[in-house]
Amino acid sequence: MEFDDEVETSQFDVYRHKFDVMSRQFLDYITPHIILRWIAAYILVMIFMSRIVWVEGWYIVCYTWAIFLLNMFLKFLTPKFDPSIEQDIQNESVEEGTSKMDENDEEFRPFIRRLPEFRFWLKTTVSTLIAIFCSFFSIFDIPVFWPILVVYFIILFLLTMKRQIQHMIKYRYLPFDLNKAKYASKK
Known about the structure:
By secondary structure, the protein is mostly helical. It is 63% helix and 0% strand. It has six helices and no strands. The N and C termini lie far apart (87 Å).
């Protein structure tokens, strides 16, 4: 019996590799087109929502998808480095006498998101496509009283956003760049 040192690749692996390369090329092409990406995502969301309303079903799929999007949106609004943890660490170092910063020192730190915009768009698009796909199978059409899900989601959204906004106010960060800074000329 003779063993070959070469590893045989299956036809599936070849097709998977081709798909990976094509999808990476597409993502690399679409990355700088922010507005077009979000328009496409919005169209997909509208297709999914109109499908849910039209067929009057798959409310659990829609609810799960909405909770996932809420979770991704919160990660998008949250800074990568939580200021509450940094403040606790700074307070501990002040108590130990090892802090070098004054309380008046306000150094500029750029807002770095926990979930970057591109990843947020990609996860939104993929989750919407999965939700549309799931809405074609009756196994996912679990009978529920949908108004309860809507009310629960609204309450969850309001409470979560209230907590997030309070966190943003307390630690003085704004996740959106509203306008470009303008400097006066030296004339």
